[in-house]
Amino acid sequence: MKAFGFDETDILRGEMQAAQVDAWIIKSYPDRCAAEQDWEYASSRFSEAKAELIRRMKESEVDPEIIAQVEGLKAHFIPVETE
Question: I want to staple 19 with a disulfide (CB 3.0 to 4.6 A). Which of 6, 10, 11, 81 is the partner?
Fold first, then answer.
């Protein structure tokens, strides 16, 4: 299953990451999944991960232009990391 997430530096850059993970991990233990991917946050739902990324970007006072770019981000734009 595809998981979406981001790390500390992704918040400042307005980037998101995706990886193929076991469905049970992302559904039952999203924090564990995030830790395994070295992310701050992970979700199986793109919209949820995007909303959290935008919230944290605003909290960190990231440039509004970068936030606007993230608001237009689509799930298929994000390449899936392979191990």
Answer: 81
